[in-house]
């Protein structure tokens, strides 16, 4: 039952972005009484990380492929928001959270030389922006510590994504400005 419950909460939070703070608060309160929820959440987190690791380049030839891509895009954005809310509620481990951030940045770095990945990179930049906005509004000590780790571990990787580079054909102006906003939020 716990596995089914946690899976349902993750899916609902990822698909209903507006309710992410409520779902994170629910998990936070329930995990105090039922610590097994945290173990199951860690297992689900590992499975759900695949939505950032294995992505299509956005070149769909048919309508069904386009629809599937839009669902995945909405899911990644909602999932990003949910994880940021979990970290704000001290439910998620900082190391797992940083692993997700690094995974997203790695995917962006891999795709910058691919001119067909402009939309995908824009989507990943939006996900990172959602995360940085969510954690920048929290004043909890653990989140302040996380922001220091985020700055230390990612700022040198984000900085090259904020400037025009002829080799980065997959990086649009919109994305560069988004990464500039992320850079400023981390600073």
Model description:
It is a single chain. By secondary structure, this protein is mainly α. Helices cover 75% and strands 0% of the residues. It has helices at 2-15, 20-33, 36-48, 50-53, 63-88, 94-111, 118-136, 141-158, 173-186. The longest helix has 26 residues, at 63-88. The protein is globular. The termini are far apart. The mean pLDDT is 84.
List the helices and strands and how they pair.
Layout: H1 2-15, H2 20-33, H3 36-48, H4 50-53, H5 63-88, H6 94-111, H7 118-136, H8 141-158, H9 173-186
Radius of gyration (Å):
17 Å
The biggest sheet, with number of strands, parallel, antiparallel or mixed sense and barrel status, is:
none
The shape is globular
For the record, give the distance between the C-alpha atoms at the N and C termini, rounded to a whole number. 43 Å
| Element order: H for helix, E for strand | HHHHHHHHH
- Percent of residues in helices comes to over 70%
């Amino acid at each position: 039952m716990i596995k089914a419950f946690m899976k349902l909460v993750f899916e609902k939070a990822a698909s209903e972005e507006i309710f992410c703070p409520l779902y994170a608060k629910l998990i936070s309160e329930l995990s105090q009484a039922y610590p097994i929820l945290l173990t199951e959440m860690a297992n689900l987190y590992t499975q759900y990380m695949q939505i950032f690791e294995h992505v299509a380049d956005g070149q769909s030839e048919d309508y069904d492929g386009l629809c599937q891509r839009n669902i995945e895009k909405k899911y990644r954005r909602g999932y990003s928001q949910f994880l940021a809310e979990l970290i704000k509620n001290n439910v998620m481990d900082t190391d797992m959270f940083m692993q997700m951030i690094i995974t997203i940045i790695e995917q962006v770095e891999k795709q910058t030389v691919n001119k067909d990945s402009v939309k995908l990179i824009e989507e990943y930049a939006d996900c990172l922006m959602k995360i940085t906005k969510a954690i920048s509004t929290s004043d909890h000590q653990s989140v302040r510590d996380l922001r220091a780790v985020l700055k230390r571990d990612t700022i040198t990787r984000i900085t090259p994504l904020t400037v025009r580079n002829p080799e980065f054909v997959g990086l649009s102006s919109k994305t560069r400005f988004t990464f500039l906003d992320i850079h400023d939020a981390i600073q």
